[in-house]
Amino acid sequence: KWLKSSTSVRYAYSDTKVTFGSGQGGVGRLVKLIPTMTGNPVTDQVVDANGNYGYYDKNASAVRDNENVYYNSKMKDNKNIGQSLIGSTSLEITPAKGLSIKTNFGINFGTSAGYDFSPYNDIVPTTRLASYSQRSNNSFEWLWENTATYSNTFGFHKLDIMAGVSAQENTSRNMSASGSGLTTDGLRNISSLKTYTAAGNNQTWSMASQFARLTYKFQEKYIVTGTVRRDGSSRFADGKKYGIFPSISGAWRIKEESFLKDVNAISNLKLRASYGEAGNQNIGLFQYQSSYTTGTATANKGYVFGDTKTYVDGLALAYLPNPDLKWETSIQKDFGVDFGFFDNKLSFTADYFIKESKNFLLNIQMPAQTGFTQATRNVGSVRNTGFEFVANYQNNDNKFKYGINVNLTTVKNKIEELAPGQNQVSNLQSLEFPTTTSGNASWAVFSMSKVGGSIGEFYGFQTDGIIQSQAEIDALNANAKTKNGSNVYYIASGTAPGDRKFKDQDGNGMITDADRVNIGSPMPKFYGGFNLNGEYENFDFNIFFNYSVGNKILNYVKRNLTSMGGNGSVGLENVSTDFYNNRWTVNNPTNEYSRAVWSDVNGNSRVSDAFVEDGSYLKLKNIEVGYTLPSKLTKKASISKLRILASVQNLLTITKYSGQDPEIGQSASGSGGVAGGVTASGIDVGIYPYSKFFSMGLNLQF
């Protein structure tokens, strides 16, 4: 056949109601509710048997606010409807032997619309008007790829050549509006709001690429492959749009050599080596050119005229442009070996890799005189090295067929360079080192990435037990005064027995920000998974585990549930039962928990190793069992295959971690007041744990 074509279309629809979000603003708020609500004279319960809802006394400044989160969850109406359409069509022609030309065009269209409605708060009518927000998001992306492939064999030589071009464009439009003061709960639209604000944006980005690949094989023993890509992105200025990324790999199939060809026990032995470059263009749009934002003069975006100070809206530069931005580049070298024994019934793969990334696209701190706090620059380099191992055993000799697959990966991460004159990055949000005060504000810096260290290491204070007596405090204060003069405290005036003691790293007798050190890393010593599968007659099963060993978790949830207050403007909140029962008291001089105190002058809840835990785990991620009906039954209905299946996900987790789920990954940006991103790995801010998910289904083939 000289002509082939194919088309595929997939449509998806979702209708979602969300009551709580993740982080401290969602399920974390519910956990920290104080169960006794004294503001309602009718009931002090969250909800009583008669359906009355409680609330907190607004005048009780020790309490966070008077919201009843359970009531809000029952009364709120939040909905989001999403639709997506993904389609592709391809055409392939073979004009001559060994030559094929293929074109493929695909689209991805997505739309979502939703609203959030909070009714008039009739249990505390003076505190909140009915509010309503509405949003709409639309995106359309197309990708067009064209390739030509030529393959031929000349005696012992085999040659494969591929060349192609691709173009891609993405357009998105977003609009939102929100406000309060609905005339009636039944009229849920923006025009019915007493006050509202609106926002929206349209944006487009595009890419164009050219690529080629050549593979040469000699006697199926020696294999060499070379590729090159030239990628262009609209995110960079003219002259910087394109990056060229070559790669080359080689393999030696030792099994095909005469000295091993007749060794039946060895079915495969191959050595591999490769070198490759890849690019990253993940930055905001048009940061290479000036962009302006509108606003009022009071927001430093407008003008003031005359003696009467007439304010006029205007434009202001949104950010500091950088026309020199270019592609971030990663270079990876890989050396590997493949073993196969007994017709590949038993096989092993081992790889050693070196990955070097340079010219990171990062936001760096700018001098104050520029008028901007930060700007995007190409800075820094990071080196990752590690091993990957895979072992596989497959037995198909009997009626009961089964297989076992195990994989393990180790990675060592090292920062080799940051911006000129910088050797550390706090939270990787900007190249700066902000100072903090004791206690709450120290959570502004929870990780530090230093030259010579790894990305996102937890950064805080090392604890040294709990202060047990006033005499211990007096001795610490006396030592501080001896070293630093009069009226100097070890940590703070008001520190009392039951407060945490922190290690004085610099030996000056005082606890200051300079005493913060590396208190753990979210990077595991090794991680991986293993899979078990089997078949017996018409039955089959698959079991998958994953694991992580040696990684640490900074438990922000534990910090909040083991402190009575000290959360900035937030007042008193609930605590965990374990903290309540085991906190330090005169009659319980423990070294586990500090005392219960609202005014935390000692900073017991600051970032410290008291909240760092072992995050190692073994998790049963998925079990699937299936049964395939005999073909003699399904053929009568013109069905070639019918398989019934049942599965369960996240059934079991084995871990020492005290939180809900050790598999937390990266915290979303802004969750719980903790910044997100790569250096928020291992920060537990109260995200939803993975749910146990049970499902049944059918697989049909015609």
Could you describe the 3D structure shown?
This protein has seven helices and 31 strands. By secondary structure, the chain is mainly β. The protein has a domain at 289-322. The strands form six sheets. It has an 18-stranded antiparallel β-sheet, covered by helices on one side. Strand 6 and strand 7 form a beta hairpin. The longest helix is centred in the C-terminal third of the chain and has 15 residues, at 470-484. It is globular and about 90 Å long.
Structural class: mainly beta
Instruction: Flag low-confidence runs.
Output: 429-441, 566-570, 668-676
Rg, alpha carbons: 31 Å
Q: Could you tell me the number of beta strands?
A: 31
Explain briefly what this protein structure is.
The chain contains 7 helices and 31 strands.
